[in-house]
Amino acid sequence: MSAQLDVIVEGYADERVAGTVSLIRDGETTIVVDPGMVADRTAILDPLRALGVKPESVTDVVFSHHHPDHTLHAALFANARFHDYQAIYQGDVWEDREAEGFVVGANTTLLETPGHTDQDISTVVQTESGVVVLTHLWWAADGPMEDPYAPDAGVLRASRQRILALEPVQIVPGHGPAFAPNERTPV
C-alpha cells in the first residue's frame, strides 16, 4: 500500500507570495504540509473539502521550515500534531525528537535537509508512482540555482544532492508546480 499525494495550493513567489500546500493521505494518517500564506484560507479549505477531508480530521501538519509563508494557516488544523525539525507539538505538549528518519505515516518520512534555512526538513512520500519529495530546497523547477536566503550554498547543494540520490519521480517545491527532476535540475 502507498500514500496518496495531492497538491492543494501551487505556490508562487513574485509580486505576491504563497507557499505550496499539500495533502498526504497515508492509511489512517492525514497530513498537510506547509499550510502557509495563501490569498484566502478558502484556497486551502475548499480543495480539502472537495477531496472529502475536514480540517478536524487532519492528524498531522509538517512545516518544512518556520517562515510564515509555510506556517501561517496552521491553526486551521486544531486536532493535528505539528512537526518541525526538532519536535512534535500538540495542544500544550512539546515533545523533542530528531526529524531525521521520523515516520509520520507508514509511507511518509521526514529528512533533515538544511539549505533554505538551517532548520529545513523534507517530507518523503512513497506513492503508487514512486518516491515524491516535498521540500523547499527548490523554490520551483528552475531553482533558483542560488537560494538568496540560504545561509550556506554548499549545505544547500549537499541537501539537494541527497534528495536527488533518492531518485524521486517528482519534487514538490516550496513555491511552484511539482516537477520531475532531470539533468537540468539545479544542484
Q: Can you walk through the features of this model?
A:
There is one protein chain. The protein is mainly beta. The chain has one domain: Ribonuclease Z/Hydroxyacylglutathione hydrolase-like (Metallo-beta-lactamase, Chain A, 4-Layer Sandwich), CATH 3.60.15.10. Helices cover about 10% and strands about 30% of the residues. It contains two helices and 14 strands. It has helices spanning about 40-50, 155-165; strands at about 5-10, 10-15, 15-20, 20-25, 30-35, 60, 80-85, 85-90, 95, 105, 110, 120-125, 130-135, 170. The radius of gyration is 15 Å and the shape is globular. The N and C termini lie far apart (about 30 Å). The model has no long low-confidence stretch (mean pLDDT about 95).
List keywords for this structure.
187 residues; Metallo-beta-lactamase, Chain A; 12% helix; 31% strand
Could you say how many structural domains there are in total?
A: 1
Number of strands: 14
What is the CATH H-level superfamily? Ribonuclease Z/Hydroxyacylglutathione hydrolase-like
Shape: globular
What is the CATH third-level topology name? Metallo-beta-lactamase, Chain A
Number of DSSP helices? Answer: 2
Strand order, biggest sheet?
1-4-5-6-7-8-9
Query: Residue share in helices?
Result: 10-25%
Mean pLDDT metric: 97
- Residue share in β-strands: 25-35%
Give a short account of the largest sheet. 7 strands, mixed
Given as residue ranges, the uncertain stretches (5+ residues, pLDDT < 50) are none
Determine Rg (CA atoms, Å): 15 Å
| Elements, N to C (H/E) | EEEEEHEEEEEEEEHE
- Decide which structural class fits the backbone: mainly beta
CATH class: Alpha Beta
CATH architecture: 4-Layer Sandwich
Distance linking N and C termini: 32 Å
